[in-house]
């Protein structure tokens, strides 16, 4: 009897084994056992994902499961914080101040038995300085106004480089706050301006562009237009006791005009009313003479003639067109002289100066003192 019961139990066990090996029906799915999601062991949050340079970044680390004793925070600016504890790390708060603005993807990681778990949190550090132009683009000849606003008063020093040899240094005993800088460009076009602000720990750089519009040069004259120049000439060569000096008033006046092939030719009478000294220590002698020259007005240029001591200097300038620099200064690469023109009177300043061996020197200058336009 006992043997029969044992045989029946063995048979039932074998039958149950084979039944368990059969595939389950379609409406029953076996769910595999998976390891726990380790990404839920800790979480990290920031009080602000966007901060301003000079602000303190505050990170909160929350341990869902306090299983880690070691870890690290990489702020992606060369700064690291390390955790090494005898007891599991629990909730903690860490702070950091960035030295430069930018975007940083901070990495936080923890270790246990060679296993690693890490997360990233993104923070955007905005510049402290807000720089705006009052007017851009800017007409040539207008003054550029640059407004600088500091979100945080952390900088005591800075530089503004206009890239024309003009650099403004900012050095203050108190933090730089809101300020306005003015600058006048000598030439039209697109210009970059470099800004740098810094203290002992932090710095930021900005590169902005301003567009200076070309100047439209448009000069018109008429019969009766008159220029009155002060005149000066002096030449000296001591080894030969040579010395001459002439000074006085030169008057130009348009007395007539004619039109040839669409171009206007103005007839200009130039009168010299000068005093001349022919030797060092000599007495001045009056000299008055008259010369007639032509000013040629073409479609997009003008030819002017200046009566000088030894010769007549003729200069051609653009007209009724856009120019990069105003006023127009004609100056050779060798230097020593220049002629200046605007679109009110045309010629208004001429200067020549040179020196040589054994004390030789020569200087000549015409400066417009009055312009009359009928």
**Rg calc:** 43 Å
**Number of separate helices:** 1
How would a textbook summarize the main sheet?
A: 10 strands, antiparallel
Q: Kindly state the mean pLDDT as a whole number?
A: 89
Task: Note the gap between the termini.
Answer: 147 Å
Describe the protein in words.
The chain is mainly β and 374 residues long. It has 3 domains: 88 residues, Sandwich (Immunoglobulin-like); 85 residues, Immunoglobulin-like (Sandwich), CATH 2.60.40.10; 156 residues. It has 1 helix and 28 strands. The protein has a 10-stranded antiparallel β-sheet with strand order 23-22-21-20-19-18-28-27-26-25, with no helix packed on it. A 5-stranded mixed β-sheet has the order 2-8-7-4-5, with no helix packed on it. The chain starts with a helix and ends with a strand.
Please sum up the structure shown.
The protein has 374 residues and is mostly beta strands. The protein has one helix at residues 2-21, and strands at residues 42-46, 50-52, 57-63, 70-74, 80-84, 92-96, 102-112, 115-126, 129-133, 138-139, 144-150, 157-161, 167-171, 179-183, 189-198, 203-213, 215-217, 226-237, 242-260, 263-277, 285-297, 301-307, 312-318, 321-323, 328-330, 337-342, 346-355, 361-372. The protein has 1 helix and 28 strands.
